[in-house]
Amino acid sequence: MSASFLITDVRLIDPARGTDAPGWLSVEAGKISGFGEGDAPDAEGAARINAHGLILAPGLIDLRVRTGEPGAEHKETLASASAAAAVGGVTTMVVSPLTDPVIDTPALIDFIMRRARDTASVRVLPAAALTRGLAGEAMSEIGLLKEAGAVLFSNGHHPVADARMMRRALTYAQTFNAPCAVRAEDAALSAGGVAHDGEFAGRLGLAGVPALAETIQIARDSLIAEDAGGRLLLDLISSRAGLEALALAKSRGAPVTASVAAANLALNELDVGDYRTFARLSPPLRSEDDRMALVDAVRTGLIDFVTSAHDPQPPEDKRLPFAEAKPGAVGLETLLGVMGSLVADGHMTWAEALRPLTSAPASFLGLAQGRIAEGAPADLILIDPDAPWVCREDELVSRSKNTPFDARRFTGRVATTIIGGRIVHDVRRERAA
Amino acid sequence: MTEEYVHVFSQRHLLGIEGLNRLDAEAILDLAEDYVALSRGREKKSALLKGRTQINLFFEPSTRTQSSFEIAGKRLGADVMNMSVSSSSVSKGETLLDTAATLNAMRPDLLIVRHSASGAVKLLSRKVDGAVVNAGDGNHEHPTQALLDALTLRRRLGSLEGCTVAICGDILHSRVARSNAILLQLLGAQVRFIAPPTLLPTGVRDWGGEVFTSMDEGLKGADVVMMLRLQRERMDGAFLPSTREFFRFYGLTPERLHACDKDVLVMHPGPMNRGVEIDSAVADDPDISLINEQVEMGVAVRMAVLDILSRAQSNHPPRGGL
């Protein structure tokens, strides 16, 4: 493909403005050079691509992707994760500091960025550890890490248990306008829990994680954020009660945002079924009522971001008794299918489904991509909104295959993924090959 | 000439009471009656399982259940081998499924499995050709315990229909309580759950029985009290303040039983903590305590389970056969 081209006959969706109309878009030198409604203008010399009515939207920005690089390359590398991302329409992925070693020094940020530049096919932005070694005891070098390229300061799978440490870290991070992220799950209340604390887990004899673990942490950390200031992401909300605590915090003006994992929008506690460890997630899959509340919160914007919470685990960590298996699931390749199915079922519009995956995370991190605007990077996806497909574990590109969605039907699939004006994934081309 | 009705057992394994229908359960209990008679005779041995291999695979230490299964298998003529995996091979890094594959290659016909994790026995059963009996998985199920309890009660009361059984103690961590709750109701009994609130599972109110946090209230009108074992590590303040406080409010004492408006039978799956959940005067009273009978019924029920599963094997040929 030439450096400049024109995509015609698209259904152009810009989640930032909430627009959804037939139109066209042109790309020059890796950037969006023009777009509009109706018929495309004549453009001398530019290649024309007829999209036959597919959705054209900004590429997805995933705030929480875990890879095994460095330290567990057999699970996932930056290269294999980015290949999965391209298939899933994710053009920018923020990679978790939860690696071995933990990403808590500028040298390791530099390592991630160089490895990404040399091996990854999508944009990779590193998140750094908020506290040294993710231990929650001492803050990491937030200023130096940001200077090295860290875009987010995450505490991985855990909250910062010590309230004083949390307050200081948030206070200090403001100096560098550094966004911070913590899991919304009280460590003591969730200790030992492996499933939603409900009747189903009770009968299976599985220890539960009560929703209270989430509400307490949301309440505490949003109060700390209100006091200390800064920008705090409460990561992976899973319950209706948690949403109520979040709504209260936001109504008080606390500087907090929140995310949800796509799996929690599509599955519930019953998907654990016969001790299916691939459905062992953290936070756990909760009740259908919780799921519906989460879906609604995505539509209304109470939940700011949707993420794949991509967490590759090989069979030896999953084919175990339920409580002994590691939590987590791969999700990059099913992320858009989950959202498309919610749209197909009438829960939200495409613009509402895409906002928490494009413009909202872009604004949070201050990125130029994630919107349809002249001069913005041409990170784009074509979506076939009506395409039915079945997720097959063995067809996943990700190096680990631990998906809870094996054999699950979805509506809506990424047809083409474009990054900086360059096609990195195209369904038709790959089928032909 | 009338043909005798022969019930075909619906399962290949016995992984839990959940999934059994009433006919399955009654078929096991009826057959167990025969084995009670056999075990009480001088010549206790049958040749039914001659040539079959039974492996008792215990990932958790057990004396009673393991020896009960061992005697059951030997009385039926099977070659019985005990394997206590405890923590040794787990610490060597071998996974449950690797152990399963290794044992399966030795071609056992019957595998009796106990594991500390809920669902572990079911996971293992998917990877082996022989019939698997769950001898207790985590806090999930212990089906042969429930069956032996039902047999004990059926022999004493004639039928479980309409009788009220109060299950008391650490219900949260008890696989015995879960299996019994299902089986007793399947056989027509009414179930009550009595425990301090910290030892009640989430959602126990949907298990079909009444829930009490007061022992005295829960015992009123009950026909049978089924005490559960309270593990020492639960009593250090994490779930309960102390042993003596538990005994004071939930221990089964003669005074508590005398206060009941009728004669109550007492059961305990063992091993007992005397003076913690049960008073010796109650445990040792032959008029009301069924505890030793439970042990005897355990062997008979396990013989019946081994018998019925090995018969069912002809309906479910092994996957890997020659």
**In what range is the share of β-strand residues of chain B?**
5-15%
Number of helices of chain B: 12
Name the chain pair with the biggest interface and residue counts per chain.
A-B, 22 and 24 residues
The name of the CATH topology of the largest domain in chain A is TIM Barrel
Radius of gyration of chain A: 21 Å
Low-confidence stretches of chain A: none
Q: In order across it, which strands form the biggest sheet of chain B?
A: 7-6-5-8-9
Number of helices of chain A: 15
Total of domains of chain A? 2
Helix content of chain A: 25-40%
Structural category of chain A = alpha/beta
Oligomer: heterodimer
Characterize the main sheet of chain B: 5 strands, parallel
**Architecture per CATH nomenclature, i.e. the level-2 architecture of the largest domain in chain A:** Alpha-Beta Barrel
Percentage of residues in DSSP E strands of chain A: 15-25%
Q: Structural class from helices and strands of chain B?
A: alpha/beta
Architecture overview:
- The complex is a heterodimer of chains A (433) and B (322).
- The radius of gyration of chain A is 21 Å and the shape is globular.
- By secondary structure, chain A is α/β, with parallel strands linked by helices.
- Chain A has 15 helices and 18 strands.
- In chain A, β9, α4 and β10 form a beta-alpha-beta unit.
- In chain A, the strands form 3 sheets. In chain A, strands 1, 2, 3, 4, 5, 16, 17 and 18 form an 8-stranded mixed sheet that branches. In chain A, strands 6-7-8-9-10-13-14-15 form an 8-stranded parallel sheet, sandwiched between helices. In chain A, strands 11-12 form a two-stranded parallel ribbon.
- In chain B, strands 7-6-5-8-9 form a 5-stranded parallel sheet.
- The longest helix of chain B has 22 residues.
- Chains A and B meet through α6 of A and α5 of B.
